[in-house]
Amino acid sequence: MAVSSVPATDPAARAGLSRDQLLELYYWMRLTRSLEERLVNLYRQTKVVGGLFRSLGQEACAVGSAYALRREDVLSPLIRNLGSMLVKGAAPLEVLRQYMAKGDSPTRGRELNIHFGDVEDRNFVGQISHLGDMVPVMAGVTLSFKLRGQPRVGLVYVGDGATSTGAFHEGINLAAVQRCPLVVIVENNAYAYSTPTAKQCAAERLADKAAGYGIAGVRADGNDVLAVYQVTRDAVERARGGEGVTLIELMTYRRKGHAEHDNQSYVPAGEIDRWARENDPLDRYIRRLTGEAEVNQNELDAIDARVSSEIDKATDVAETSPPPEPRDCLLGVYADPPAMPVLWYREGIHTAVEQHERPASWGTHDG
Amino acid sequence: MSGLLHGALTMAEVTYLEALRQALFEEMERDENVFCIGEDIGAYGGAFKVTEGLQARFGDSRVIDTPISETGFVGAAAGAAHMGMRPVCEMQFIDFVSCAYSILTNYVATARYRAFLPCPMVVRGPSGGYVRGGPFHSQNPEAAFFHTPGLKIVYPATASDAKGLLKAAIRDDDCVLFFEHKYLYRRIKQEMPPGDHVVPIGKARLAREGTDLSIVTYAATVWKALEAAEQLEREDGLSVEVLDLRSLLPLDDEAIVATVRKTNRVLLVHEDTVTGGIAGEIAARINEMAFEWLDAPIRRVAAHDVPLPYAPQLEDFVLPQTADIVRAARWVARY
User: Fold this and answer.
1) Per residue in A34-63, pLDDT tens?
2) What is the pTM for the complete model shown?
3) Distance CA B184, CA B188 (A)
4) ipTM beyond 0.90?
5) For A11-320, which CATH superfamily applies?
6) Chain A partners of B80 at a C-beta cutoff of 8 Å?
7) Domain ranges for chain B
8) Which residues of B touch A140 (CB under 8 A)?
9) In 3D, which of B236, B234, B289, B235 has the Cα closest to residue B266?
């Protein structure tokens, strides 16, 4: 197993956070995990139209890093960064509507899962599925900060797999040369789909790639939320201070499959259980909170109850959300023209099919 | 200073290349969000000198030399565009835009639709053959992007259109691929229209009026079509109309249908290879929109389906020539 344990932060330091802030981190991690658990229920009820992606065991990476940003800073999440998006202001209701392909979802049913963004106010950019592509895009977002003299920072996430792509290399290299205020987090969760990190890259440490770009590189324990927060905060401060790009490798572990359908047959027996038992980011954080931070269990129970209630309410609303209007699909490919023409055989027709066509026409038709 | 410079240039005839440079100067003067990014475009002024003098005038933060990384700087342009800037990317040769194909078609082209992210940016570069450039400095990759909703494509044939369309492309709120024909860079000259000369994207230009036959084309082959039209008038007494599309995405359907209805005979000409080329789409549209107006089959003159070779004898055989257009036009006219 390539993932090694990394020294945790000094427990007494609390990363310079107040008690309320420590509890806030717990709230975001619990919200992330519980929201995904709700999505699993909805998926099993076939209410999630497409695939479902989990970040179980990686919540500390997402939450701890995003917590180091200001509102005006821009974040580019990946598929396992639901927690980052929640911290940055995404609402559970938006996520639920998005997964259920609702007409009032942030993308009006055009995109899946957590592929959505908001660069007007909360400042996160909707990702695409082509891994590595968000690195050059975020190089450009942060280049604009530099050109305009704005004291803003960008944070982009990639996985261990995306570090193999050309886009990752071109983007981080360009950002390094331009000294863009960018933090690049490699969430090394041991697998890219089924491929272990050792088959992705021969380097022992992905953080060592930083040397090749002439930027700072650092590795941290991705399952220690305070360590993640601290290492990201330091990189963000460096970026804001004009010291350029930092590459952070967060060591973590993906306890679920690539997506919900993946049975993880390629994982050695016992590995997942061992991580769940010994290195769960929430369990570890609870021990720390109830230990040296002297938080009592009632406080955590109250947060759990608040999370449950928020998710219940959001689910109720999302379930009643309408589906998109079919003809909305023709709008907004361009600013001008605002709509694409309907094809001639659909003139005057407002839905593609009256009922689901597949059973009768996709090979099961025996007539 | 620049006003004086531009005044002097505007009065005289300028080359296609100088027209592009004027457009960049004027747009960077007009809007501080406009910046240029690409390889060797700063102190060196670009491989063909389209950006010459820009860095001296606007500084190295607005005329940015990049590592060799087409995906990197096209992606970066998209990110900057999301934040309200208007980047202009230069491909050193348009052949290298294929390196950025994925990020252009998957990220840039879909940004507005899937994420409501504005992506006002231009990707421009020297395109086309007839220059003995061989397989990797002569390409016409427009058809590769023509199939992608979310992109716009222009390919001007005149100096005036080069300037006016580049200014329109920079002001457009979506990504415009701007193909410049390198054969035309220094070979054609024209007086620039006065003032803020902007040519709307999506409108074709009638390059020559005629009544017997229409040649629909774009870029360098506009000039070959005009040459052919003169020869056909002289030798055959044929009145040939030449429609210069200028914009390929969107296509000007109205202008295409209008010329079909006028002459009832159409020859489609482009320098790009014939299979999967834009002529095929135009033929399909004429079939759908104006079939009953045709007196002859639609025919195509385009490049043979081979990579573009280097030797003059080979390149000239592969690419459409004026003599090919004359031969094909006679076939269509006689049918």
Assistant:
1) 999 999 999 999 999 999 999 999 999 999
2) 0.94
3) 6
4) yes
5) Thiamin diphosphate (ThDP)-binding fold, Pyr/PP domains (3.40.50.970)
6) 140-141, 143-144, 147
7) 2-191, 205-334
8) 75-83, 87
9) B289
